[in-house]
């Protein structure tokens, strides 16, 4: 037997030998890596790019034999950064709901309800997920997108975010088929549940939009309008609601008939009849986002197309006051009649547009560009979209712009009817019947008043205003409107009569002059004849 001290010495010696072997091995490995890196750097620097690329390809392939993991990336943008990737958004939603509890660095955003927060994993954070016995690792990264030389700007270069999943190659089938399908469907479900609808608008600041990679900026869409609260004939309302609901459920039907899944609505009528309110009601009914497109801020047709591509599905794209947006009709006349503030606003919009054009900064969007926007090939991408135009002057629009197929449904919003008043009375006064309703019914039948004016009169002006006071206000307004209309009609009649009278006087005057002229000519003729006769040789 060896003494313990000797044994300890041998063990220590062996350990020393072992550690020196390990140190040697590490040193060897280090020098091999360094040599490899050196050779690699030389290859990269001096080899033609084709050679270095194929070297890289084969090295990766070689590594693939030894590296047993597979990676799949989900990029934030699709197709040359033209569109947001729905898969990326679904993965983000899935991870924030299922895996973010394991993450140590989280990103917080307000959810559907402003008071609640949605947490998702922050950049470069890594989380693990289990699926049917397989383990996967998700990591969130970002990559700077280098801009072309021509677009170098003051703003920092845009970033592209990426989610990458890594898993062992033995789980390939399970992950690529079942797990990713599960992630995407769960993610989409979560997104619909947590969806905070947005109201987008396009900005004319091109530098800014370039920085954000999209021409749209948004706020949370919070308009409370619904079809129930809209004042219009119940039958017409029912028809519109049914049309919208049918559209939203007709994905397969549109695919079957070979038509892009989109529908156009033209809302027309005088100012204050509820066109904008109806758009909000549509968005609330279908749970869609709203893209409010300001055509005058769009530089040209290419930019218009880019904006279209950047819209998501389940959205309404609106162009308000299409007749004022651009000189698309080519037959614009000066508006001399101003009947309300709404019209004044539009008039100033037109003037601003004209001025912008004169300054050379006006929009170069053409009618054909807009027609392509509505139903060109690009308009089909994304699907499930409504396009809504509003106008006060439907007769001014080019027929090509509003033909069926582009604007499939034409909806006229007009002055308030008694049915419409009843809806407003229920909303504003909580009344379904009242003795004063009869007077309102008679007056509403005799004069024109917009739902906006009715609504304004039913608004309480003080905390003490009760239903009777507000109904009296409305009756007063209706009587005033009736008087004004009668006065206007009288004036118009008088003007007509004056014109007629003027015409008659002018005609008589002309006739007299003609007769006089004729008379003179005849006299001249007689005189000439007499002269001729007298000059005849005897
Ligand atoms: N049909 C309606 N039902 C309920 N409220 C209405 C209706 N029409 C108008 N209103 C009320 O009047 C206000 C103005 O209506 P809205 O902005 O929708 O009119 P518009 O037709 O878009 O006018 P414009 O042509 O000037 O844009 C709304 O805030 C709403 O309260
Ligand atoms: Mg409006």
Describe the structure.
The chain is α/β, with parallel strands linked by helices and 538 residues long. It has 3 domains: 40-194, no CATH class; 198-412, P-loop containing nucleotide triphosphate hydrolases (Rossmann fold); 418-506, no CATH class. It is 52% helix and 16% strand. It is built from 17 helices and 15 strands. The strands form 4 sheets. It has a 7-stranded mixed β-sheet with strand order 10-9-12-13-14-11-15. A 4-stranded antiparallel β-sheet has the order 1-8-7-6. The longest helix has 69 residues, at 467-535. The protein is elongated and about 140 Å long. 21% of the residues are buried. Bound molecules: adenosine-5'-triphosphate (ATP) and magnesium ion (MG). Magnesium ion is lined by residues 275-276, 320, 390. GO terms for molecular function: ATP binding; ATP hydrolysis activity.
Give a concise summary.
The protein has 538 residues and is of the alpha/beta class. The chain has helices spanning 4-46, 49-66, 86-98, 172-194, 206-212, 234-248, 251-257, 275-286, 301-309, 322-325, 341-358, 367-375, 399-402, 418-429, 437-446, 451-458, 467-535, and strands at 69-75, 77-78, 83-84, 106-110, 117-121, 126-131, 134-144, 159-168, 198-202, 216-220, 262-268, 289-292, 315-319, 385-391, 409-412. The relative contact order is 0.07.
């Amino acid at each position: 037997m060896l003494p313990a001290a000797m044994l300890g010495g041998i063990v220590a010696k062996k350990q020393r030998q072992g550690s020196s072997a390990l140190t040697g091995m590490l040193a060897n490995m280090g020098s091999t890596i360094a040599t490899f890196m050196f050779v690699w750097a030389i290859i990269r620097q001096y080899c033609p790019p084709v050679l270095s690329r194929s070297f890289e390809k084969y090295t990766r392939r070689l590594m693939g034999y030894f590296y047993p993991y597979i990676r799949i990336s989900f990029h934030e943008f699709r197709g040359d950064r033209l569109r947001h990737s729905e898969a990326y958004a679904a993965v983000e939603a899935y991870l924030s709901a299922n895996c973010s509890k394991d993450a140590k660095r989280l990103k917080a955003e307000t959810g559907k309800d402003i008071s609640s927060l949605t947490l998702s994993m922050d950049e470069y954070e890594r989380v693990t997920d289990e699926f049917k016995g397989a383990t996967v690792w998700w990591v969130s990264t970002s990559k700077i997108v280098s801009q072309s030389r021509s677009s170098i700007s003051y703003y920092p270069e845009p970033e592209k975010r990426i989610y990458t999943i890594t898993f062992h190659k033995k789980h390939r089938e399970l992950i690529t088929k079942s797990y990713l399908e599960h992630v995407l469907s769960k993610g989409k479900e979560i997104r619909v549940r947590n969806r905070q609808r947005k109201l987008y608008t396009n900005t004319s600041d091109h530098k800014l939009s370039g920085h954000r990679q999209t021409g749209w900026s948004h706020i949370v869409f919070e308009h409370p309008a619904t079809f129930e609260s809209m004042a219009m004939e119940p039958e017409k309302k029912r028809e519109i609601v049914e049309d919208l609901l049918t559209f939203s459920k007709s994905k397969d039907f549109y695919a079957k008939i070979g038509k892009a899944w989109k529908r156009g609505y033209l809302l027309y009528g005088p100012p204050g009849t509820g066109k904008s309110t109806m758009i909000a009601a549509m968005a609330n009914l279908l749970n869609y986002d709203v893209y409010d497109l300001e055509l005058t801020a769009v530089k040209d047709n290419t930019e218009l197309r880019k904006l279209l591509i950047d819209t998501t599905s389940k959205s309404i794209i609106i162009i308000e006051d299409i007749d004022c947006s651009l000189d698309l009709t080519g037959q614009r006349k000066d508006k001399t009649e101003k009947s309300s503030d709404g019209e004044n606003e539009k008039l100033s919009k037109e003037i601003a547009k004209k001025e912008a054009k004169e300054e050379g900064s006006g929009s170069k969007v053409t009618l054909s560009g807009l027609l392509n926007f509505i139903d060109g090939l690009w308009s089909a991408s994304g699907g499930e979209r409504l396009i809504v135009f509003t106008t006060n002057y439907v007769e001014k629009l080019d027929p090509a712009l509003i033909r069926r197929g582009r604007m499939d449904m034409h909806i006229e919003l007009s002055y308030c009817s008694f049915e419409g008043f009843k809806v407003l009375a229920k909303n504003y006064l909580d009344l379904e019947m009242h003795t004063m309703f009869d007077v309102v019914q008679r007056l509403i039948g005799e004069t024109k008043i917009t739902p906006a004016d009715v609504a304004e009169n039913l608004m309480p002006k003080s905390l003490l205003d009760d239903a009777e006071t507000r109904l009296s206000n409305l009756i007063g307004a209706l009587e005033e409107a009736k008087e004004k209309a009668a006065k206007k009609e009288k004036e118009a009649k008088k003007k007509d009569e004056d014109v007629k009278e003027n015409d008659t006087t002018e005609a008589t005057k002309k006739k007299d002059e003609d007769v006089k002229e004729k008379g003179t000519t005849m006299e001249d003729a007689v005189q000439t004849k007499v002269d001729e006769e007298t000059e005849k040789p005897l």
